[in-house]
Description:
This protein has 585 residues and is of the alpha/beta class. The chain contains 26 helices and eight strands. The strands form two sheets. The chain has a five-stranded mixed β-sheet, with helices on both faces. A three-stranded antiparallel β-sheet has the order 1-2-3, covered by helices on one side. Strand 2 and strand 3 form a beta hairpin. Helix 5 crosses helix 26, helix 10 packs across helix 12 and helix 12 packs across helix 16.
Amino acid sequence: MPSESDKWGWKHVSVFGGFDKGSGTKRWKCNHCNLPYNGSYSRVRAHLLGFSGVGVKRCPAIDRSLREAFQSLEEERTAQKKKRASAIVKHGKCSQTSRPNMTCVTKEDVDEILARFFFADGLDANIINSTYFHEMIKAIAVFGPSYEPPSVQELSGSFLTKEKERIEKSAALVRESWPHTGCTILCVGRLYGPLGSFQVNIFVSSPRGLSFLKAMSVNVDALCDSVASILSNTIVEVEPTNVIQIIAHLADANTCPESRILSEFPHIFWSPCSSHSFCILMDEITELDWAKPVVLCAKEIEKCIVSLQSFSPFVFTQNLKGCSNSQFYKIAPSCFTVQKILEIKQELQELAAREEWKQWKLSIPEDVRSVEAAILGEDFWNRAYMLLQICEPFVRLFAALDIDRCLMGDVHEWRVQALDAVKNMGIGSGALNQLEELIENRWDMLFSPLHSAAYMLNPRYFGRGQSKDKIIMRGWKTTLERYESESTGRRVLRMQLSSYWQLKGSLGEEDAADCRDKMDPVAWWENFGFEIPHLQTLAIKVLSQVSSVVMCEEIWQDNGTSGSGTERGEDIIYVQNNLRLNSRS
């Protein structure tokens, strides 16, 4: 960097103050015209040379000869600056990857250097969106060009240790809330690598936040026992009295250690993941007697179109991939197939009447007369439209539910609203009865009884006729039997539930009624449930739990098994996953 002595203009002004220490912004007064200004050297130079547009006036006291002398000094200074820059660039041309001249680096230079770093080390371009990446860039920029990064040994040693300690200190504050709200242990896993090892990841969720606890690789041959042992140890670590439920989703594994865990900890709920259960329920709806032929026919039509496009690419150019933004795309894939076919009904009917369709039929061994009849008739289209009518409220309401953040009990409200919407469509009683029977028969298998307890105890849903709903009352009964082993304790909870429904004492006050749908349900119980303390405790714990593992799956999916089995590797995964969770929250 050129020194201040190179800037000849400072000799012609009097500096009497500065703003920020180390900055070029100063208070100064011209020695020729005595006018005061604020600004850096660029304004001094502009004032003396007579430049405009930089926030200062041309000095009125400088004549032509003096200004020409100043111009000569400026030209000499510019020449010296170029000479220095040329020397630096010449010295740095030993390789194409050498650093540019940092004395006059531009935004484009910095972008190219950053991109080169990503390309050379094979980094995921999505890192550019990381909160921590932007924090790092800003911190380095503030520190300045003299910053030197830590060594590899320091990163994997003292800095890793410090970051782990910081996360553990934050986690300790979260743990303090578990006796009050309870917590959920989330277990997700998958087969990994050619050796067939199974990676198990454990998270703990409570209203204070979602925390990553640990990751372990186990042998597939003893998967059930290994997962049971991991969960059992985790429950002891978290404290059994703090654990309300376990939600486990072990993809690619036909195992479930539920019975072993519940025999050891009978008060804990083993709950299915609501997101995955919903997808199963939607698949089962499409398997109903009247719906299954519609889905099969839609898939046959799709196969015929693909075959026709292969036979004659320009005959039918409609895109069969459909819109990936469709609500059916991820939630109900079978319905998504029907939706795609229904959207091109007119084009398909016109196609089936064309000569090219007839020529294609003669070229294939399969008999497609049933597919052709479905396309040209109306029965398939009517049934397809009815299937989408029935499924649309379920899919739309579930997509709006934000299952990662919704409260226990919201899933029942989704069920009630979706069924009401279907009933209001005028659907035939036969199809409607099959739908309601399927949901009632499968609900207890697909969803936790805690949802029923939460739907009864969430003040937002007060007075929704829960006592007349068989699904909810079965879930409430199961919840009491699991939560409270003594019949005396269950009787107290049932009596206090009646007090809640009858709005006795503080529950019937004006503030309590006014705050039912305005206040967080847990906070509502903390404020107004003190006269029925046993039910208050149960309500707070039930309403504090989550019901899905989807966010956990998104967090751990890129971990791999790097460093697994070593203390350093486990520390890296622990820090990595918790930082990811923190950036999302």
